[in-house]
Specification:
With about 90 residues, the protein is mainly alpha-helical. The radius of gyration is 16 Å and the shape is elongated. The protein starts with a helix and ends in a 7-residue tail after the last helix. About 0% of the residues are buried.
């Protein structure tokens, strides 16, 4: 995992902020460093998700009941972040 992260430009110094030379928390790294917005096995089968900007298409999908649960959660998070706490 470390080699793969190094290959895409993430240095050992950054990786070690989330662990040490033997192990690290890849989820903490991905969220804290801004490489992902979402991770869940249910929606994405264990993949990281980096969302683009919220646009009218997303809003309309949610309002028309055509969006996914992830679409609705994303829109709610943007509009009312206090619902999700820290």
């Amino acid at each position: 995992m470390r080699r793969k992260l190094n290959a895409v430009g993430i240095t050992d110094e950054v990786i070690n902020q989330y662990g040490d030379d033997e192990s690290f928390d890849v989820l903490a790294l991905a969220f804290a460093e801004g490489y992902t917005d979402y991770y869940t096995d249910y929606y994405t089968k264990g993949k990281f998700v980096l969302w683009g900007p919220i646009d009218d298409e997303l809003r309309q999908r949610v309002l028309n009941g055509e969006g996914t649960a992830m679409d609705a959660e994303r829109l709610l998070l943007a509009l009312e972040p206090e619902v999700f706490g820290q």
